[in-house]
Amino acid sequence: MALPESQHNAALPEAEIAREAPANSVSLAILTVLAAVFMLYWARAFFIPLMFGVMISYALSPLVNRMQKWGIHRTIGAAVLLISIAGGIGEMAYSLSDEAAATIEKLPEAAQKLRQTFRKQPGEPDSAIAKIQTATNQLEQAARGAPTASAAAPRGVTKVQIEKPRFNLQDYLWAGMMGAAGFTGQAVVVIFLAYFLIVSGDSFRRKLVRISGPTLARKKITLQALDEITEQIQNYLLVQLFTSFLVGVASWLAFLWVGLEHAAIWGIAAAILNLIPYLGAVIITIGTALIAFLQFGTIGMALMVSGIALVITNVEGFLLMPWLTSRTGRMNPVVIFAGVLVWGWLWGVWGLLLGIPILMAIKVICDRVEDLKPVGELLGK
């Protein structure tokens, strides 16, 4: 006679039940992580402006707090600060628009000049790259079974030639206008969100502490975690802005020294791109190499200018930045690199910008939750 289900479960050895419990916990944790990743990717249009608003509020809250001590109300201080920053960025962009337009106009000329440099001259033997390209084209044509020019179609068979759609400038202009409108709308949302977060002050902090749990110990842990997250993110943003300013000034002076045109534009570009981990240094290196080749006409000068940009960004990235952030939350460089890649995959360039602050907040939370301490240890140095 078979035992009822309840008696059968009661008859299981305690050791087997103990083995099943961790397995169920691991499966549940994996499913939770996958669901969170899907939600972050699916709702990225909501989370990206939200995180940018939070970052801006963290960066500007100390200034608004100081203005409040001087007798300026938070609503007025936050509005004046955000309007001043937005106006300053707009004024700088307008003042440098002519130089930026001149630089952009030269990019097609630079690409054409680069093609002419690597193109085979009459009487010269084919380069290795040209031979490889020719062989690749022939293999691709053979794989597709494409007929040669002299091959005639069999009798009774109609030849069909597929024509590529013509380039429609109107479609590209419309797509660009829609993209600019979408970016402007998101920027407005970020500014308003940052404003309301700054004006609210510590109200959200108090609410989180209040709902964290009934015990005093849990409220204390929540408060400590919020304080540490605020301190680490503010220190990180301060260091990032300071090092980006140094990179911009150093790049501007170095480009002036070698005689690069529109050195101020490329100095500002270096400062802005320095905010993007890893990818920013690559973009500024390639961009300055192309512009230097267009201006000077030699590969040597292009390598020299791009080498200057690469040295400045590497000194900042591998020496100055780690030294300045040594007193903040120490994190494993490998985990940081992998985490930035993950956030970049989820949110694109915005994920590269927000990845490190998010990882810092995750590490602080994991260090204070008993069940998540192994994750915090993994993120640590």
Protein described:
- This protein is mostly helical.
- The protein is built from 15 helices and no strands.
- It has helices at residues 5-11, 14-42, 44-69, 74-95, 97-118, 128-144, 169-200, 203-211, 216-258, 263-273, 279-296, 299-324, 333-347, 349-368, 373-379.
- Helix 5 (97-118) crosses helix 11 (279-296), helix 8 (203-211) crosses helix 9 and helix 13 (333-347) crosses helix 14 (349-368).
Q: What is the number of helical segments per DSSP (H or I, 4+ residues)?
A: 15
Order of helices and strands: HHHHHHHHHHHHHHH
Overall 3D shape: globular
Which structural class do you get from the secondary structure elements? mainly alpha
Strand segment tally:
0
Rounded to the nearest angstrom, the radius of gyration is 29 Å
- What are the low-pLDDT stretches, counting only 5+ consecutive residues below 50? 146-151
Summarize the structure.
This protein has helices spanning about 5-10, 15-40, 45-70, 75-95, 95-120, 130-145, 170-200, 205-210, 215-260, 265-275, 280-295, 300-325, 335-345, 350-370, 375-380. With about 375 residues, it is an all-alpha fold.
Fold topology:
Elements (H helix, E strand, L loop, with lengths): L4 H7 L2 H29 L1 H26 L4 H22 L1 H22 L9 H17 L24 H32 L2 H9 L4 H43 L4 H11 L5 H18 L2 H26 L8 H15 L1 H20 L4 H7 L2
